[in-house]
Amino acid sequence: MKPGATGIKRVIDAAGYSVQGLKAAWINEAAFRQELVLLVVLTVVTFFLPVTKFEQLAMVASMFLVVIVELINSAIEAAVDRIGSEHHELSGRAKDIGSAAVFVSMCFVAITWLVILL
């Protein structure tokens, strides 16, 4: 175990690091900005749809999943880019798999919304 803060101080520090990560994603990742704006807009839209609260929750949760996966994908891309700029098969594979995860999460949104609205 690495030495560091414990208890509430650790929780406060972790929250600060999370805020830094969100700021970095907003500044450096266009896809994150687009998906976050879409999350906000479509969340508002759900309040005007003829759906139950549980269905609304599922619709919004599916969109949150896209944002979460995009954050993970962005972290993978940043780590790979930090390692080096030269092309390497494994680096490309890591980035492609991260991108595929975002795509699958978007497919999940589409399926969720279609099943609920149709």
Automatic annotation (TrEMBL):
Q: What is its main location?
A: membrane
Which CDD domains does the record cross-reference, listed alphabetically?
Answer: DAGK_IM
- Compartmental location: Cell inner membrane
| Alphabetical list of PROSITE patterns matching this protein | DAGK_PROKAR
Annotated ATP binding lies at: R10, Y17, E29, E77, E86, H87, H88, K95, D96
Its recorded reaction(s) are: a 1,2-diacyl-sn-glycerol + ATP = a 1,2-diacyl-sn-glycero-3-phosphate + ADP + H(+)
Q: Where does a divalent metal cation bind?
A: E29, E77
The cofactor required is:
Mg(2+)
Annotated binding of substrate, by residue? R10, A31, F32, R33, Q34, E35, E70, S99
Cofactor binding, per record: Mn(2+), Zn(2+), Cd(2+) and Co(2+) support activity to lesser extents.
Biological process annotations from GO: phosphatidic acid biosynthetic process
According to the UniProt record, what class of enzyme is this? transferase
Function text: Catalyzes the ATP-dependent phosphorylation of sn-l,2-diacylglycerol (DAG) to phosphatidic acid. Involved in the recycling of diacylglycerol produced as a by-product during membrane-derived oligosaccharide (MDO) biosynthesis.
Q: Tell me the protein family, please.
A: Belongs to the bacterial diacylglycerol kinase family.
Q: What is this protein called?
A: Diacylglycerol kinase
- The species this protein was found in: Photobacterium indicum
Lineage, broadest ranks: Bacteria, Pseudomonadati, Pseudomonadota, Gammaproteobacteria, Vibrionales
